[in-house]
């Protein structure tokens, strides 16, 4: 009963609140996001920023100093979780073509930007943030270079409000190193190396042209594609390279060196556990594929996809989790449980939390402001009744993005309430 | 063999046919009496005579033996050092018949047959097709078979499910020569071939279609009033030999079931992996026709590629060449076919490989001669070289079963065809060559067909003596040899040509030569050493491979089948499904639960003790909606109603997902037909007994189920503009389809009742009748409340029940109506937004339905999610505030209830099946990991054993890959690149026989 009262209370606050308010969260179990924890934590928030982190027991609260004081009674505080590499917000219903806004025509589209297609009113988004996932990287798909992603908050009146980092990087789909037979022809046999080398050459030559173009800003013939890639060589943008197989990964390391890319990131990385030293030495981080996947090969360990996060951690590779795959937009709300599964299979609880918060933010270049609950950072966080990584106890008590409370209702809880009326 | 009658009609040679050909010119005579002497004669597989004589008179063998006086009028042929085999008989070919091609894609799917005339309604059933009406001599194709030692072939058009009859032709005659068959030799398969008709689109559809056709034929035989060529042909063929062409060992088992139903003993054209079902084949001992197109070694030099080759394929590569010998050891009768092998060199080398790996020469010969002759009904005329049989044989330079031999002559019914003059003895070797007192060394390698030569000579340049080599052209015709080389030294500059005679036995040449100077000289050469004979095949270590047949024969396969054990699990926290017992024990005996509780119990003898201190024990998870372990299609989407098809017919026990799901605590799965049509196919309930056969996976005496479906999938909403003509295309049509189907079923029942001995069996309506009679339960794929409500209305008015609505994502809107109807719900925990009709899906659905008193289960419909259904159940605690025990029931006891198997499984109760999971912690916790999974009292998954199996996988892979590397490195080794198939599995909406890799719309 008490719970539901505070539920309503917070909902009210949510509707009436402004980021300018001063909010104090008292007596929560703080998971900082960087591996540290603090029991009985007290967190002060001002103008959307975290201004105070203390031990509740050792701090005397001056009630007049704060607009809102919320007692957490030992609930768990987490940095907002992140859904990197996702079509959340740029698709709504997978099977309805009109709602699919993530795959542009053409194979080399670095200039195509997801940011402006991001639908802040997405009903799917409303069900994702209520599980603690508060940021996403809206990521285009398809072609060789799919386009540019942007890091978005899951709350905002429009895409401008919701933008956390505009055009954070381009997404390059590395060609398949092993040809996968056409599913309609059982004996479609194409020599593996032929197309692979050719496609790789195409990427090299495109990057060579782009790099040459970016060496001056006095280009006579403007090329939208190369303009878009300028920052990839200057270090302001990431180059996200989607690949899973070891041959690809090894070649990506060479590729990144050849172009002296400041921030290459591997997305997928199923085989990364086989070459952790190489990746660690090359300082290439990995946005690891969805742990809730089937093993790729018949003889892979049954639990290998669950264990990959631990194996990368052990191997010293910087990584975070992501959720690309079947129904990824809707499934983004299960990202906390991906981290939970990684915890069950080797990561410590705090490492599992980092893998969906701070590490993801660092890889996307927003680690200074987001991803952990530290003084000076954005107040993008949530409070759960129990462990947010466990299905049974992931229950949001409150959540905020840049200090602004999110609504804890969503389209689904509203339908639930509505039909409770039917069965009274 | 006793099945085949040995009395046959008289056969005719072409020049002895009943018709009389007019003559152009004067009559020519050919000798008709031959004596082949001094030969090694393989009279029959078990009778070999050396230095024997074979007397041939006309088209027959008159006599054979060692002490035969040769009649004067016979033409004598000396066969010293030569070997005579009876001609082989090929049973699996389509030579001389037109190749059919599938019509290209057209604007719309083709629902009806486009054939006119008196045939079957489905274009894949054309038993009336006769090869004899289409056959034309194809000399080139004949020659290819002759070079493989064959003299006769049973040819038929390889197309369709009921393919028609074959023709038994002689390959050696230039004119058309076919032996008259005493009975139909007909062919069947599960592949629909070039038919573009949409039905069948799956293997289970092919199975149902063929069964229906056999039923139709039976009805036709007794009651037909209208002529039908196809049905007539089907009936005629029953008294002949019926061949079944298979693409996999599982297809043999599937066809055998059909054979049992219609009392047909098929002869199976095999695929090469029959070794894997030899224990099952031993029971009925069907006759097989085996291919020997063994897989080539994969190119494993690149470790990045080789690591992705599935262990199952590596193991198959190793075992395939042993297929014939394993079957022979187990006394399974078989014939050998050259089907699938392009070159004669490959055929012979594969045959020899099979012999090296344990197939006896006599078994090999039998499989190529006597057995196929018997199968086709020509035992009295062909297959051996005994008196009075047709003179059909092949003369080889050596025994081709043991070493590379040349085919010299092929005789077909007394007609001689010389294929090759006996090659002269090879002159390969090293020689000292002396020309006009100049000494050279020459080195000749290669075959008489194509020699390579090198000549070495010394040159003196600035006081240094240097050896130079130059290419030597070598040619040999009979005993004549020609050498030519170019040379530049102090004596000669230009071309030297030598012509001479060889005495290869002594290793000496001599003759005349022309020098660059224009001078003619004498030359001679003396052999130093013989060239080393190339060893053709690497001997494999037989014992090393035989023990490597695993159950199943792939990664994580077991050395032997898991056995029922006595088991005591103690000190556990037990969730029985009804209550929680702290510090309790579970005892398993004879596959059943013998004790559950915290009291005293009797420890059975030899019990495995599992100390579950700190662990949780539950009954096994039951997945109400699964599509794993199915092969060749999950949907028969070719028609809107496919009640006649059954998933039970297409269980695939070799699906790795069985093992993966055991590792997630699943012990029982309902394998459902997909959702492509309003009335889908029959379901199968399996226990996940990894390693067992398809038949043994099936739950004994299982309740019957069928899949229905509603919504976007059945009206083909998301399948593109191509699929827009099949009725229904709207929800309105779906309702009418149901009414109509059940009305027809009622009429059928009425007719059946009034004419119990004279009604036409309709497998589709029989199934619907089972529903009306309450003997088959319905699981209905459903999303939107309107149509859920509709179907319950249809059911109520037609007098049947919907047992389970599956998916049922809007069940929360009509839970009261479902409760009234008595339907259960099996739903996803939290899926939505993947298509328009799931826009109102909410994760609170399970809890709302549960609260309204409905039996609710959480299912997977997904091979990945199926292995963590415990997590999915836990979501009901989050979204519906369900208690842990109620949530847990949704993946155990509740699905058992929905499947009507809760009297045997679903909870831990004395007397129930011992389907048990030991968890590392609370099974609903995110930290829960499965430690052991027990099915029917046998441990099928154990976390520690799993670690060992992984090591074993690695070791086995390394062993085979190193063997393959050897194969890769032998000269002229053939390798195939490995092509990885996209990872795919079946979903509700997967069409066709292939696995889906596409967007999943469920």
Brief descriptors of the model:
heterodimer, A: 424 residues, Urease, subunit C, domain 1, TIM Barrel, 2 domains, 8-stranded mixed sheet, 13 helices, 17 strands, globular, B: 1002 residues, alpha/beta, Lipocalin, 4 domains, 8-stranded antiparallel beta barrel, 23 helices, 46 strands
Which protein chains are joined by the largest interface, and how many residues does each one contribute?
A-B, 62 and 76 residues
CATH class of the largest domain in chain B: Alpha Beta
Rg on CA atoms of chain A, Å: 22 Å
Mean pLDDT of chain A: 92
Roughly how much helix do the residues of chain A carry, as a percent range?
25-40%
For this structure, the CATH topology of the largest domain in chain B is: TIM Barrel
CATH homolog superfamily of the largest domain in chain A: Metal-dependent hydrolases
How much β-strand is present in the residues of chain B?
25-35%
Low-pLDDT stretches of chain A are 1-17, 182-191
| Strand portion of chain A | 15-25%
How would you characterize the largest beta sheet of chain B? 8 strands, mixed
What is the total number of structural domains of chain A?
2
- CATH top-level class of the largest domain in chain A: Alpha Beta
Query: Shape of chain B, please?
Result: globular
Helix content of chain B: 10-25%
CATH architecture title of the largest domain in chain A: Alpha-Beta Barrel
Can you summarize the main beta sheet of chain A?
8 strands, mixed
- Give the N-terminus to C-terminus distance of chain B in angstroms: 50 Å
Domain module count of chain B: 4
Mean pLDDT of chain B: 90
Write the topology of this structure.
The complex is a heterodimer of chains A (424) and B (1002).
Chain A: H1 2-16, E1 22-31, E2 37-46, E3 49-55, E4 68-71, E5 76-79, E6 81-86, H2 123-129, E7 133-138, E8 145-153, H3 159-162, E9 163-173, E10 180-181, H4 192-214, H5 224-234, E11 238-243, H6 246-258, E12 264-268, H7 276-282, E13 286-288, H8 304-314, E14 319-321, H9 328-331, H10 335-344, H11 349-354, H12 358-364, E15 381-384, E16 396-401, E17 404-405, H13 411-422
Parallel strand pairs in A: 1-4, 1-5, 6-7, 9-11, 11-12, 12-13, 13-14
Antiparallel strand pairs in A: 1-2, 2-3, 5-15, 7-8, 8-9, 15-16, 16-17
Helix pairs in contact in A: 4-5, 8-10
Chain B: E1 33-44, E2 47-57, E3 60-65, E4 75-78, E5 83-86, E6 88-93, H1 139-146, E7 150-155, E8 162-165, E9 167-170, E10 178-179, E11 185-189, H2 203-223, H3 229-237, E12 241-245, H4 249-262, E13 267-269, H5 278-284, E14 288-291, E15 297-298, H6 303-306, H7 311-319, H8 323-329, E16 334-337, H9 344-356, H10 361-368, H11 370-376, E17 393-396, E18 407-412, E19 415-418, E20 429-435, E21 438-447, E22 450-461, E23 464-477, E24 480-488, E25 493-503, E26 508-514, E27 520-530, H12 542-546, E28 567-575, E29 580-589, E30 592-597, E31 608-611, E32 616-619, E33 621-626, H13 656-662, E34 666-671, E35 679-682, E36 684-687, H14 694-697, E37 705-709, H15 731-754, H16 763-772, E38 777-782, H17 785-798, E39 804-807, H18 815-821, E40 824-827, H19 845-851, E41 856-858, H20 869-880, H21 884-889, H22 893-898, E42 916-919, E43 930-935, E44 938-942, H23 943-969, E45 975-976, E46 980-981
Parallel strand pairs in B: 1-4, 1-5, 6-7, 11-12, 12-13, 13-14, 14-16, 15-45, 28-31, 28-32, 33-34, 37-38, 38-39, 39-40, 40-41
Antiparallel strand pairs in B: 1-2, 2-3, 5-17, 7-9, 8-11, 9-10, 17-18, 18-19, 20-21, 20-27, 21-22, 22-23, 23-24, 24-25, 25-26, 26-27, 28-29, 29-30, 32-42, 34-36, 35-37, 42-43, 43-44
């Amino acid at each position: 009963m008490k719970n539901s009262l505070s539920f309503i209370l917070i909902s009210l606050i949510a509707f009436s609140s402004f980021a300018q308010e001063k909010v104090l969260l008292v007596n929560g179990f703080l998971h900082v996001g960087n591996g540290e924890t603090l029991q009985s934590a007290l967190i002060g928030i001002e103008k959307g920023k975290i201004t105070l982190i203390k031990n509740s027991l050792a701090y005397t609260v001056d009630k007049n100093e704060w607009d809102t004081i919320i007692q957490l009674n030992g609930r768990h505080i987490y940095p907002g979780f992140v859904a990197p590499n996702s079509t959340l917000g740029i698709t709504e219903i997978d099977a309805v073509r009109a709602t699919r806004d993530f795959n542009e025509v053409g194979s080399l589209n670095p200039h195509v930007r997801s940011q402006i297609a991001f639908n802040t009113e997405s009903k799917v988004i409303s069900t994702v943030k209520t599980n603690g996932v508060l940021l996403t990287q809206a990521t285009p798909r398809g072609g060789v270079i799919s386009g540019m992603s942007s890091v978005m908050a899951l709350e905002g009146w429009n895409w401008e409000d919701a933008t956390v980092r505009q055009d954070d990087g381009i997404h390059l789909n590395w060609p398949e190193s092993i040809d996968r037979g056409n599913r309609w022809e059982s004996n479609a046999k194409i020599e593996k190396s032929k197309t692979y080398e050719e496609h790789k050459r195409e990427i090299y030559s495109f990057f060579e042209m782009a790099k040459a173009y970016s060496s001056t800003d006095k280009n006579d013939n403007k090329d939208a594609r190369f303009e878009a890639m300028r920052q990839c060589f200057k270090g302001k943008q990431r180059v996200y390279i989607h690949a899973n197989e070891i041959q690809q990964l090894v070649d990506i390391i060479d590729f990144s060196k050849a172009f002296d890319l400041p921030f290459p990131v591997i997305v997928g990385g199923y085989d990364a556990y086989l070459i952790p030293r190489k990746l660690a030495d090359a300082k290439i981080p990995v946005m690891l594929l969805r742990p809730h996947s089937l093993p790729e090969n018949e003889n892979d360990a049954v639990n290998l996809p669950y264990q990959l996060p631990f194996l990368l951690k052990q191997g010293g590779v910087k990584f975070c989790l992501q959720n690309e795959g079947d129904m990824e937009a809707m499934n983004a709300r299960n990202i906390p449980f991906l981290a939970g599964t990684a915890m069950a299979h080797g990561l410590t609880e705090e490492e599992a939390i980092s893998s969906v918060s701070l590490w993801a933010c660092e890889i996307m270049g927003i680690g200074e402001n987001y991803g952990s609950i530290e003084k000076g950072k954005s107040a993008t966080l949530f409070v759960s009744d129990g462990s947010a990584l466990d299905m049974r106890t992931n229950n949001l008590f409150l959540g905020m993005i840049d200090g602004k409370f999110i609504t804890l209702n969503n389209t689904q809880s509203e339908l639930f309430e509505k039909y409770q009326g039917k069965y009274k | 063999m006793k099945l085949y009658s040995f009395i046959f009609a008289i056969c005719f040679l072409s020049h002895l046919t009943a018709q009389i050909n007019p003559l152009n010119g004067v009559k020519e005579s050919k000798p008709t009496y031959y004596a082949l002497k001094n030969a090694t004669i393989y009279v029959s597989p078990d009778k070999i005579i050396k230095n024997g004589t074979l007397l041939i008179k006309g088209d027959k063998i008159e006599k054979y033996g060692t002490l035969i006086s040769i009649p004067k009028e016979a033409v004598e042929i000396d066969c010293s050092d030569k070997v005579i085999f009876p001609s082989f008989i090929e049973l699996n070919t389509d030579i001389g018949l037109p190749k059919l091609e599938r019509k290209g894609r057209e604007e719309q799917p083709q629902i009806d047959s486009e054939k006119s005339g008196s045939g079957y309604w489905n274009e894949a059933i054309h038993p009336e097709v006769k090869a004899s009406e289409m056959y034309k001599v194809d000399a080139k194709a004949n020659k290819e078979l002759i070079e493989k030692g064959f003299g006769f072939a049973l040819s038929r058009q390889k197309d369709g499910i009921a393919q028609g009859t074959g023709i038994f032709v002689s390959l050696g005659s230039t004119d058309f020569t076919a032996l008259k068959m005493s009975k139909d030799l007909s062919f069947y398969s599960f592949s629909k071939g070039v038919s573009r008709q949409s039905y069948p689109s799956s293997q289970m559809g092919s199975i149902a279609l063929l069964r229906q056709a056999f039923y139709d034929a039976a009805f036709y035989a007794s009651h037909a009033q209208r002529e039908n060529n196809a049905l007539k042909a089907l009936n005629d063929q029953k008294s002949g030999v019926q061949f079944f062409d298979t693409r996999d060992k599982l297809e043999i088992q599937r066809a055998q079931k059909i054979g049992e139903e219609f009392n047909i003993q098929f002869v199976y054209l095999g695929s090469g992996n029959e070794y894997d079902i030899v224990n099952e084949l031993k029971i009925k001992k069907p006759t097989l026709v085996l291919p020997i197109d063994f897989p080539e070694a994969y190119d494993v030099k690149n470790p990045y590629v080789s690591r992705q080759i599935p262990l199952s394929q590596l193991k198959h590569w190793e075992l395939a060449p042993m297929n014939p010998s394993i079957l022979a050891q187990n006394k399974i009768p078989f014939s050998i076919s050259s089907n699938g092998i392009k070159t004669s060199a490959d055929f012979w080398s594969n045959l020899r490989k099979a012999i090296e790996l344990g197939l006896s020469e006599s078994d090999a010969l039998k499989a190529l001669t006597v057995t196929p002759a018997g199968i086709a009904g020509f035992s009295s005329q062909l297959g051996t070289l005994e008196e009075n049989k047709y003179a059909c044989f092949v003369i080889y330079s050596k025994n081709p079963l043991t070493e590379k031999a040349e085919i010299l002559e092929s005789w077909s019914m007394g007609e001689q065809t010389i294929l090759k003059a006996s090659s002269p003895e090879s002159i390969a070797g090293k020689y000292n060559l002396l020309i006009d007192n100049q000494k050279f060394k020459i080195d000749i390698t290669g075959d008489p067909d194509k020699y390579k030569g090198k000549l070495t000579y010394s040159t003196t340049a600035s006081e240094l003596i240097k050896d130079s080599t130059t290419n030597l052209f070598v040619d040999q015709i009979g005993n004549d040899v020609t050498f030519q080389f170019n040379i530049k030294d102090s004596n000669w500059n230009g071309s030297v040509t030598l012509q001479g005679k060889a005495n290869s036995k002594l290793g000496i040449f001599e003759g005349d030569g022309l020098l660059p100077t224009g001078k003619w000289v004498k030359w001679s050469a003396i052999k130093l050493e013989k060239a080393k004979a190339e060893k053709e095949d690497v001997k494999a270590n037989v014992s090393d491979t035989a023990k490597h047949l695993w159950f199943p024969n792939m990664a994580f396969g077991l050395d032997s089948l898991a056995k029922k054990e006595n088991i005591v699990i103690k000190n556990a926290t037990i969730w029985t499904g009804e209550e929680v017992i702290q510090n309790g024990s579970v005892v398993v005996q004879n596959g059943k639960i013998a004790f559950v509780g915290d009291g005293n119990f009797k420890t059975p003898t030899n019990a495995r003790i599992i100390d579950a201190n700190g662990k949780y024990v539950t009954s096994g998870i039951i997945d109400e909606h699964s599509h794993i372990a199915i092969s060749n299609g999950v949907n028969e989407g070719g028609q809107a109603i496919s009640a006649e098809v059954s998933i039970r017919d297409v269980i695939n026990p070799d699906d790795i997902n069985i093992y993966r799901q055991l590792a997630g605590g699943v012990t029982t799965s309902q394998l459902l037909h997909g959702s492509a049509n309003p009335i889908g196919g029959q379901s199968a309930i399996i226990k996940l007994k990894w390693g067992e056969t398809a038949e043994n996976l099936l739950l004994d005496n299982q309740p019957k189920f069928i899949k229905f479906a509603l919504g976007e999938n059945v009206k083909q909403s998301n399948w593109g503009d191509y699929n827009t003509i099949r009725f229904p295309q709207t929800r309105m049509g779906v309702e009418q389809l149901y009414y109509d189907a059940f009305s027809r079923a009622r009429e059928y029942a009425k007719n059946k009742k009034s004419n119990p001995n004279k009604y036409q069996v309709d497998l589709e309506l029989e199934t619907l009748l089972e529903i009306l009679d309450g003997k088959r339960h319905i699981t209905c794929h459903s999303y939107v409340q309107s149509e859920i409500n509709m179907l319950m209305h249809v059911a109520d008015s037609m007098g049947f029940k919907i047992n389970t609505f599956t998916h049922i994502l809007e069940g929360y809107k009509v839970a009261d109506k479902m409760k009234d109807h008595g339907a259960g719900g099996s739903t996803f925990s939290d899926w939505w937004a993947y298509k328009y009709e799931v826009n109102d899906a909410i994760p609170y659905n399970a809890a709302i339905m549960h609260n309204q008193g409905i039996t609710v289960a959480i299912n997977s419909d997904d091979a990945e999610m199926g292995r963590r259904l415990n997590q999915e159940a836990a979501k009901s605690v989050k979204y519906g505030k369900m208690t842990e025990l109620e949530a847990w029931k949704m993946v155990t006891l509740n699905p058992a209830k929905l499947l009507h198997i809760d009297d045997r499984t679903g909870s831990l109760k004395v007397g129930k099946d011992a389907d048990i999971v030991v968890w590392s912690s609370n099974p609903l916790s995110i930290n829960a990991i499965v430690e052991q999974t027990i099915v029917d009292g046998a441990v099928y998954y154990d976390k520690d054993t799993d670690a060992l199996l992984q090591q074993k996988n690695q070791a086995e892979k390394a062993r085979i890959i190193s063997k393959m590397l050897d194969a890769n490195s032998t000269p002229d080794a053939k390798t195939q690149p490995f092509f990885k198939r996209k990872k795919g599995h079946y979903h509700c909406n997967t069409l066709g026989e292939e696995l889906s890799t596409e967007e999943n719309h469920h």
